[in-house]
Amino acid sequence: MDMTPSRRLLAIADDLSGAAEVAAAVRSRTTRSRVLLLGAPGAAGTAAALRPRHVGEATVLDLDSRYRPAAEAAEAVREALRMSWPDGGGRGGSGAPDTSDTSGTSDTLDTVVLKKIDSQLRGNVAAEIAALAEGGAGVVLAPALPIAGRVVRSGVVHIGGVPLHEGDAWRAEAVPPPASVAQALGGLPTALIPLTTVRSSRPTLLTALRAAATARRVAICDAETDADLDAIVGASLADGPGMRLVGSGGLALAVGRHLAMAFSATGVPATPGATGPVTKDTGSPAATGPAAPDAAGSAATAVPAAPAATGPVTKDTGSPAATGPAAPGTTGSAATAVPAAPAATGPVTKDTESPAATGPAAPGAAGSLAAAVGGATVWDTLGRGAPDATGASVLATPAAAAATDGPAAPSASTAAEPDAAPPPSAYTGRPVLVVVGTAEPAAVEQVRRLVEDGASHQRLPLAGLLADGPPVRLPALTAAVTVVSLGASPKSPGPAPAYEAVPLPSPREAEPMSGRRLVHGLARAVRAAVAAHHGAVDLVLTGGETARRVLDALAVTELDPVGQVHHGAVHLRTPDGRSVVTRPGSFGDPDSLRHIVQALRPHSTERKVTS
Fold first, then answer.
1. Alpha helices (H) in 172-296, listed in sequence order
2. CB-hemisphere CA count at 13 Å for 17?
3. Whole-angstrom Cα distance, residue 287 to residue 256?
4. CATH number at residue 521
5. First-to-last CA distance in the chain?
6. N or C: which end of the chain has fewer CB within 10 A?
7. By the 8 A CB rule, do 279 and 369 touch?
8. φ, ψ for residue 288 (rounded to 5)?
9. Structural domain span for residue 72
10. Does residue 122 sit in helix, strand or coil?
11. pLDDT at 281 over 90
12. Within this chain, do residues 315 and 189 fall inside the same structural domain, yes or no?
């Protein structure tokens, strides 16, 4: 596809961590991106906010729809499409192309639509895809996430080689997992695009996708490698942005690679603010400097088809499932099966074109993390030197929240349970508040290692979070790093053992022990703590539901991506300069939180990362 400057990308996600993942994936030297947190469909002023601010800008919407009723989720997608063309713009009510428009208006608003879904098919996948397909728009679905060992074979999602429906990935859900991608779509008509077709020539793959679109069937694509996803994106957009893409963060990365190369090929200049060093932006091409060459050379000299790495990724810190190469077939013949995709040769040790499996380039004894990722100037990009500007949100002006959700006097049910006090720290910068709202067992070890480094740990009692009264009270944020997690269950009185794994029920479950109610209580506690602190607070938020509820409580509605600390751990900045890192609950190795904190504050804890 000739990605002309008039074209843009609209990405729609069902939760905040997914939206952040997409924003980081598509951000590059030529593509700026931003995340907008949408509330109820039709919110005043949202349509104007969706208009791109810069040439080549990608707008990523968090619809917060994963645990809404299916009908509401579908309407949220329709509304997002309608708002993208607020004056009609050659689009029908569902956002589908209006072929009767000959005025050229639709050309000026040529938009690639990407729908981000969970790689494990959680959420309202069927309802949202049905809304995308209204009006006859072709839909191409590729949920594979190779970097996390999540692939699609014969139309079935496999995680670490195990079919989704045979594993425990859905243990927190109220319903069993689907046995296939087609089953997840309910009664929607589908057409399977097997791996042999994906890895054949582009004309062959394009013919199969066109046939599915003509028959109004959702094209479900097998994929095991990034090269497979690159081929799917290249063929889907070969005729222009008419087909709508649906997939996980893996597909978003492929779209980012495609758009970056297309813009480079058309000579579009780098967008303001998209150049310079970032944390270690492994989720978008050319984001680590003005030139950002890959293993094979500069993006400017590459052909429009996306390159594929054929060497193994050294270590996957973004996925608990991966223990070696990202996915079976990564070093296989996928790159050569699609002739238009040139392959980088040799092992990939710092992959700047896909989410790196090595985490944030953890330094060894010979140097600090700052030196490992580019020196002191990196921390300016991370917002360390950002002024403590004031603004309307509680994140910048803490007094606002105190009036309605002020801290309550500590009690048996509302006072946080601290671990042993950490050793004193000489750190005097902005505090980092780490909020762990995930039910994933891996979070227990992640918190333990962060506390080992000197972080203060506060465990919030579930009874207090579920109560309708004042919010749970956190101690003053005087430590450099404070980590908050769920504490003892109301059914188990007394203090919780250190690092106890407390299950977080699915937000679909019934009251009173609903996950959503717990997360709302957690967000209220965070809001009160931030409001009581005199100055700005940086946040690390695990789990998309937790991240969204906390930022809603703090009145944050827009975020700009800075980079990725590791796969899925996206560093963003609020309009007034605060740092926010979001990460899906299921992502990250045992050092994930440690790496995130070190990236934000390289000297904030007593113990330096050496692993």
1. 181-184, 195-198, 202-214, 226-236, 249-266
2. 25
3. 11
4. 3.40.980.20
5. 43
6. C
7. no
8. -105, 10
9. 8-94+110-271+284-344
10. coil
11. no
12. yes
338 token code pair? 């699609």
Per-residue pLDDT tens over the stretch 446-486: 999 999 999 999 999 988 998 888 999 999 999 999 999 98
State the pTM of this model: 0.71
DSSP for 310-339 reads -SPBS--SS-SS-SSSSSTTTTSSHHHHST
Q: Each residue of 352-410: pLDDT tens digit?
A: 333 333 333 333 333 332 332 232 222 333 333 333 333 344 444 333 333 334 333 34
Pick the closest to residue 93 from 80, 105, 104 (CA basis).
Answer: 80
Question: How many domains is the chain built from?
Answer: 2
For 240-262, how does the pLDDT look when each residue is reduced to its tens digit (9 = 90+)?
888 999 999 999 999 999 988 87
How far is Cα 543 from Cα 564, in angstroms, rounded to an integer?
16
Distance CA 253, CA 229 (A): 9
Lowest-confidence range among 28-32, 117-121, 571-575, 600-604?
A: 600-604
The answer on 297 and 384 residing in a single domain is no
pLDDT at 174: 84
Put the strands of the sheet holding 150-153 in their side by side order: 150-153, 156-159, 162-163
Same domain, yes or no, for 326 and 455? no
Give the C-alpha separation, 594 to 32, whole Å. 28
For residue 32, the one-letter residue type is: R
**Identity at 338, one-letter amino acid code:** V
List, as one string, the DSSP characters of 484-552.
EEE---TTS-SPPPTT-------TTSPSSS-HHHHHHHHHHHHHHHHHHSSS--EEEEESHHHHHHHHH
Rounded Cα distance between 415 and 396, Å, is: 25
- Say if CB 22 and CB 247 are below 8 A apart: no
Q: Which residue has the tokens 């969706």?
A: 50
Alpha helices in 353-488 (DSSP H): 369-372, 377-381, 399-405, 442-452, 462-466
Retrieve residue 533's tokens: 């602190």
Tell me the residue type at 252.
Answer: A
The average pLDDT across 300-328 equals 38
DSSP 159-205: ETTEEGGGSSTTTTSSSPPPSSHHHHTTT--EEEE-HHHHTS-HHHH
Same structural domain for residues 381 and 329? no
- Domain assignment of residue 130, yes or no: yes
Assess if residue 332 is contained within a domain: yes
- Say if 278 falls within a structural domain: no
Answer whether residue 182 is part of any domain: yes
CATH of the domain at 159: 3.40.50.10840
Q: How far is residue 123's CA from residue 67's CA, in Å, rounded to a whole number? A: 6
301 and 379 fall within a common domain: no
Are the CB atoms for 291 and 302 separated by under 8 Å? no
Q: Give percent helix, percent strand, percent coil of the chain, each to the nearest 5.
A: 30, 15, 55
Q: What φ, ψ does residue 250 adopt, rounded to 5°?
A: -65, -45
Q: What is the CA radius of gyration of the chain?
A: 23
